Amino acid sequence: MFRRSVARRFWKIANPINRPLAGLLPWWVLLETKGRRSGKRRLTPFANGPFDGKSIQLIAVHGAHSAFAHNIAADPHVRLKRRGRWRTGTAELVEPDDASLQHFSSYARLGYRTLGEDPKILRIDFDRS
């Protein structure tokens, strides 16, 4: 529980700082979900992950425990800003495996190893444009 409280404090400081930069810098992406209760737009920065043009994988450090995961469970339709471009898609949380984690940068895997509490892979399948 101590680990989670430290991580929460860290993200309360880091996320507002990184939100304006996420989606523009190549190592960050910005996930937009719709609040499950409020219906308001919610933005969460993530370390960029493997992208094949049709989908992207991101590391969800706190897995299903995070607020954005609850929002996705209520409405899986999301938007993702990557390198200045918004794309729409459908998100789902999947179990990580060693093979899929090898495709992430060492920076992205750092949160998985240090701050993670039941981490998952967030997979977003993009709508056809």
Summarize the model shown:
The chain contains four helices and six strands; from the N terminus they run αβββαββααβ. With 129 residues, it is α+β, with helices and mostly antiparallel strands. A hairpin with a 2-residue loop joins β4 (77-82) and β5.
Q: How would you sum up the global shape?
A: globular
Q: CATH class, anyone?
A: Mainly Beta
Taking pLDDT < 50 over at least 5 consecutive residues as the criterion, the unreliable ranges are none
Number of separate domains: 1
What is the C-alpha radius of gyration, as a whole number of Å? 14 Å
CATH superfamily: Electron Transport, Fmn-binding Protein, Chain A
- Helix fraction? 25-40%
**CATH-derived topology:** Pnp Oxidase, Chain A
End-to-end Cα distance, whole Å, is 43 Å
Helix segment tally: 4
Strand content: 25-35%
Major sheet: size, sense and barrel closure?
Answer: 6 strands, antiparallel
List the helices and strands in order: HEEEHEEHHE
**What structural class is derived from the secondary structure elements?**
alpha+beta
Strand line-up across the major sheet: 2-1-4-5-6-3
Give the CATH architecture. Answer: Roll
Total beta strand runs: 6
Mean pLDDT: 85
